[in-house]
Amino acid sequence: MTRISLLTVRRISCLALLLLSVAWASTQQDPALNESSVILITGAAGFLGSQLTLALYRTYNVKKIIAVDPMQTPSSDTLLQAPQLAALEYQRQRQFHLLQTMKQDVHWYRVDFCPKIPEYYDMGEVSVLDHIFREHPDITHVVHLADPYPHSAPATQAVYHESDVPKAGMMEALMEQLRNIQNAEQPVPHFIYASSYEVYPHTSNATKFHETQTLSTPRSLRGASKVLDEMMAQYY
């Protein structure tokens, strides 16, 4: 099997697992995943995000999907190289396809939803997530697929940050938003997070992973960042 076809199989497998995860989570609340469901998906312009958006729309005929994606790379403030430009073009094409297919059933936010950390809050600033949840108070599910690291480049930090950009992380922002909803005694949306095989240590048989494996030594910095996110979600 070629590398391209193997990558496609892995992506399709991930998509199927994500779809099953969202469907399983929906059975834990009323209403179930159906025409009344409102789903927020981060990283919606990525391969998995865009395909999951279409799959949920076509399979369950959900009420609406809130798609959130900044559609930019961490180095967007500098001259983009050919791989980055190609990735951005793929994102733009996926966004166009979703908007053309779903029309008014998808609400697109091309924005970085990470808020400034409290010490740097501007007077009167309203965080992006707070604005989105106020505009769509009927959100029933949140699927977090956004990844601060482009897959075309290796991660260089376990906790991603940019120089002179004092912002909280993605998971922290989402968890704080959901906790605020809970504190307001409102229905808390179900949360689904896509981790990575990179959280598992290297083994002699790298193709076999089990959820019961101990997450002791992630195989990469991206894997370490995913483990940190899982631990943070577990704490909240």
Topology of this protein?
Layout: H1 3-26, E1 38-42, H2 47-60, E2 64-68, H3 82-102, E3 106-109, H4 128-135, E4 141-144, H5 170-183, E5 190-193, H6 221-235
Parallel strand pairs: 1-2, 1-4, 2-3, 4-5
Helix pairs in contact: 1-2, 2-3
Can you give keywords for this protein?
alpha/beta; 41% helix
Shape estimate: globular
Strand content: 5-15%
Distance between the termini: 42 Å
Structural class: alpha/beta
Instruction: Bin the helical content.
Output: 40-55%
- Record field, number of beta strands: 5
What does the average pLDDT come to? 76
pLDDT under 50 segments (min length 5)?
A: 1-9, 26-31
Question: Summarize this, please?
Answer:
The chain is of the alpha/beta class and about 240 residues long. The protein has helices spanning about 5-25, 45-60, 80-100, 130-135, 170-185, 220-235, and strands spanning about 40, 65-70, 105-110, 140-145, 190-195. Strands 3-2-1-4-5 form a 5-stranded parallel sheet, with helices on one face.
What does this 3D model show about the protein?
- It is a single chain.
- With about 240 residues, the protein is of the alpha/beta class.
- Helices cover about 40% and strands about 10% of the residues.
- The chain has a five-stranded parallel sheet with strand order 3-2-1-4-5, covered by helices on one side.
- Helix 1 packs across helix 2 and helix 2 (about 45-60) packs parallel to helix 3 (about 80-100).
- Residues about 1-10 and about 25-30 have low confidence and may be disordered.
